[in-house]
């Protein structure tokens, strides 16, 4: 008959996939765009999203994942704030037969059966692109002193962007990293660390910041010290969010390696596949490029984030 079944709703919502997503935080422009992409893609795909913000703390993320397990969501996705320390909670998800998708950042685990797939950028490649630009653009210069603003200690993008950059500059005899410290991927962190570098380092030629926000913080510190960012001190960053691209087009940043935060659609597609029990690639990459000052000026008007 027409009588609704017990517990049944009016719509087809009972069939909707429920995804628990444990986000890192809201530390950067990149993260804000990433969150918006995931929320919008979920809505468009009819995926019911449970969303939590861990404020960059692993224990908060673990707690969120445990609560998703308890709620028996269909799929868990998360962007691990750091690489290590996930095995226990991921084993709990596996025992509960809830598939897990790593989004944006990887985990460092011996057991790759603890997750279905990792959707994210190649951070080593991003670091290499940053280093290669520096090598090409400092040929013939005597001594190039670089200070590095690292991302969150222990996070995949911090570890990999450092590694990629170091390997790209290794054979250039004139480039040296004279100081390297974490700014936690935030603007205030970048500013504070750069202030300290400007005090302790007599001769800084280049800032390599693992994201735009820290580079923008470094610009504030450089200007406050009476120097001209982009000229007295050249700046290389990663991400290519709108504020970074604006600074690049104004000449305050010299080069940006793109890291694309708009993963939402790809994530929902993968979620549908793993919930349906389909095989998916263990590693799914996001496409990205790089920008010079001229290129930034050209594409800025169309930049969505
Ligand atoms: O580059 C940075 C953010 O994990 C790729 O996290 C992401 C990084 C991004 O805070 O801005």
From TrEMBL:
CDD domains: PBP1_galactofuranose_YtfQ-like (cd06309). It comes from Pseudokineococcus lusitanus. Residues 25-279 form the Periplasmic binding protein domain. The keyword Transport applies. GO terms for molecular function: carbohydrate binding. Belongs to the bacterial solute-binding protein 2 family. Keywords: Signal, Sugar transport, Transport. This is Simple sugar transport system substrate-binding protein/ribose transport system substrate-binding protein. The keyword tRNA-binding does not apply.
